[in-house]
Design goal:
single chain, alpha+beta, 4-stranded antiparallel β-sheet, 52% helix, 7% strand
């Protein structure tokens, strides 16, 4: 059980976070600075206003400069700041969705936001369980994710999707869209059971641990990662993912 991998769950839905940031940016830009909207009389007919022009996305190789200001305005949380300091953000998201849609872990590409504290177990008689203190290491990551409005993220998912789809197909998926990868990823994650404490684990060599329950250990890598965050975090992330999935559908 590689305990650094659960941060991939947050990485998988960073596309939604970017969507939320773009939505905030567009709403803020809708009213020019230093202007006050004129009052409208109750008897005045509604005014037809032209639809805002579509967002023109820069080329894929220039998306970092487009995304960073949006994300900075959305959140100043250190996990997001550390990730934004890396390069090729859209391609990173494409890789994450590519791996996660097949149930594999993309965590090795997101070590920059991995929890620093070590994995801990507790002894219960002759068995070992995950120590509840291990779950606390993911408090900030889960708070970062669940603080984003899922509906707002979904509304702008389509805005950034052209470049995300371009990156996704460019890594070897010419016959599959990023929408399909996102839906497959969400279906896998939402099928994760919420397991209450204690969760028994067994040492499988060195500092590696596995779930003692064969059914849990047979889950996909991404599902096992979500369980390692602890039942409270698992439940919160699943609630957010359900809202996000409902909104994009």
């Amino acid at each position: 059980m590689d305990d650094k991998k659960p941060i991939a769950i947050v990485a998988v839905v960073l596309a939604g976070l970017i969507g939320g940031g773009a939505w905030w940016y567009l709403r803020r830009s809708a009213v020019p600075a230093n202007t006050t909207p004129a009052a409208v009389a109750a008897t005045e007919a509604p005014i037809d206003r032209p639809a805002p022009p579509p967002v023109v996305l820069p080329p894929l190789d220039q998306m970092d400069d487009f995304l960073r200001p949006l994300l900075s305005a959305l959140s100043a949380r250190p996990e997001l700041v550390r990730w934004m300091a890396t390069d090729d953000l859209v391609r990173q998201l494409a890789f994450a969705l590519d791996h996660a849609s097949e149930g594999h872990s993309p965590a090795r590409d997101f070590k920059v936001v991995a929890p620093r504290a070590p994995f801990q177990t507790a002894r219960r008689g002759t068995t070992r369980t995950i120590d509840a203190r291990s779950y606390q290491r993911y408090d900030s990551l889960v708070q970062t994710l669940t603080s984003i409005d899922a509906s707002a993220a979904a509304r702008v998912y389509k805005t950034i999707k052209p470049r995300l789809n371009e990156a996704y197909q460019g890594i070897g998926n010419p016959g599959k869209t990023v929408d399909q990868a996102m839906n497959e990823t969400l279906d896998i994650l939402l099928d994760t059971p919420v397991v209450q404490d204690p969760i028994e684990v067994v040492e499988v060599g060195g500092a590696a641990w596995a779930f003692a329950d064969e059914e849990l250990e047979s889950l996909t890598s991404t599902q096992r990662q979500l369980l390692r965050m602890g039942p409270a975090h698992t439940d919160r992330v699943l609630v957010w993912l359900r809202a996000f999935k409902a909104a994009i559908e």
